[in-house]
């Protein structure tokens, strides 16, 4: 006689089988729903969770560590506009270091309350850490970051923008201990010098992303050492307002960094037009984004060379390059369409007119953003009367349109 008993799924499936099912669930929302079925499923869902964003003190962090035992990514970043006091503290970091031992990614952006003591705990407890963001944690010094470098030898990504107390000593520690480092953000770390970059280059040859925007004490000597040491890896280099940078850096990039995709040299006023031509020739096939606003030596012929050689260029900023004229675009007027430009910024280029913009529109059918602020010869009426812009192209005449983030 057939049995009328009803089997419960929990009696049939093992934990491993339930984990397999959970692994096939795509969205975070559905995974949360999985955990609502029963306590067993909630426990499994918790132990399998890999990423978590939280605002919690030591007591809650301990409870979270007990529940999310396999967590790989923890985001404790504080919003600049809505940060709370005291926020994340060294006590919190001690709990994290002891409780989340599998952690690979830790975001502490703008956690202004943490000090070197918290970094020491991270270095001692999170040996598997691969990515750390301590940007704008202004109490941190070389001591804390050196402790991280010594304890987290597999570190791949480190961002410490705005940590003004960080010096070359931190870069030396990274060079000695973190040979796999790929991404380093040092924006506004004004105590960094060429010696630090030289040390970094000697021990970290795999750097693909380096942001030293506003590091005003670095020069061609340090940056050229990076371009030579990391030649096959370097893809993004940011040098905004590094006023000591000149042709030596640009020529070094042109010679060694054939895979360079993003270069920011805005405010590097000593860079010459000839150096830019060499850059376009050496990195033409790889460059995607180029920002050189306030590089006042840029000429029509150098810009034309960039447009001709860098056929994959998607974002270009030549704002405040006051010597540029329509001739820069006329030199490419006879070429076949096919430029990949999506964003072009020519604000304060007072000699460029509607005619020059018309050439660009003809050659750049994918253009999505055009900045012509403070260009007296380019008006909305003039453009509307002569050209038909696609709806997807936003034109910024007076600053009412947000700039794309691609060149920041």
From TrEMBL:
GO cellular component: cytoplasm
InterPro entries cross-referenced by the UniProt entry: F-box_LRR-repeat, FBXL15_LRR, Leu-rich_rpt, Leu-rich_rpt_Cys-con_subtyp, LRR_dom_sf
Domain F-box/LRR-repeat protein 15-like leucin rich repeat: 97-173, 177-303
Keywords: Ubl conjugation pathway
Gene3D superfamilies: Ribonuclease Inhibitor
Protein's name according to its UniProt entry: F-box/LRR-repeat protein 4
Organism: Cajanus cajan (Pigeon pea)
Lineage: Eukaryota, Viridiplantae, Streptophyta, Embryophyta, Tracheophyta
């Amino acid at each position: 006689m057939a049995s009328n008993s009803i089997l419960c799924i929990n009696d049939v499936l093992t934990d491993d089988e339930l984990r397999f099912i959970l692994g096939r669930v795509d969205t975070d929302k559905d995974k949360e729903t999985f955990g609502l079925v029963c306590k067993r499923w909630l426990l499994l869902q918790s132990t399998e969770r890999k990423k978590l964003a939280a605002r919690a003190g030591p007591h809650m962090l301990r409870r979270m560590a007990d529940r999310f035992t396999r967590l790989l990514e923890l985001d404790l970043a504080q919003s600049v506009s809505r940060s709370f006091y005291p926020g994340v503290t060294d006590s919190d970091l001690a709990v994290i270091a002891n409780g989340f031992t599998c952690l690979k990614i830790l975001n502490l952006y703008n956690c202004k309350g943490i000090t070197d003591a918290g970094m020491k705990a991270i270095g001692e407890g999170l040996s598997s850490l691969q990515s750390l963001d301590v940007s704008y944690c202004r109490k941190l010094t070389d001591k804390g970051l050196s402790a991280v470098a010594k304890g987290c030898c597999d570190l791949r990504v480190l961002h410490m923008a705005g940590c003004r107390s960080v010096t070359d000593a931190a870069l030396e520690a990274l060079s000695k201990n973190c040979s796999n480092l790929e991404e380093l953000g040092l924006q506004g770390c004004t105590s960094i010098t060429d010696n630090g970059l030289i040390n970094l280059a000697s021990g970290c040859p795999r750097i693909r992303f380096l942001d030293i925007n506003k590091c005003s004490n670095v020069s061609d000597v340090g940056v050229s050492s990076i371009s030579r040491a990391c030649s096959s890896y370097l893809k993004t280099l940011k040098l905004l307002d590094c006023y000591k940078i000149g042709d030596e850096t640009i020529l070094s990039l042109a010679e060694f960094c054939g895979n360079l995709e993003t270069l920011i040299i805005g405010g590097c006023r000593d860079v010459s037009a000839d150096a830019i031509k060499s850059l376009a020739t050496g990195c033409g096939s790889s460059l995607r984004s180029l920002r050189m606003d306030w590089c006042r030596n840029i000429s029509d012929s150098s810009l034309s060379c960039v447009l001709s050689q860098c056929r994959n260029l998607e974002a270009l900023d030549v704002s405040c390059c006051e010597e540029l004229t329509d001739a820069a675009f006329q030199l490419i007027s006879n070429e076949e369409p096919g430029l990949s430009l999506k964003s072009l910024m020519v604000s304060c280029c007072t000699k460029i007119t509607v005619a020059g913009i018309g050439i660009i529109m003809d050659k750049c059918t994918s253009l999505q953003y055009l900045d012509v602020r403070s260009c007296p010869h380019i008006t909305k009426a003039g453009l509307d009367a002569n050209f038909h812009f696609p709806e997807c192209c936003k034109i910024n005449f007076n600053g009412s349109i947000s700039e794309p983030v691609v060149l920041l």
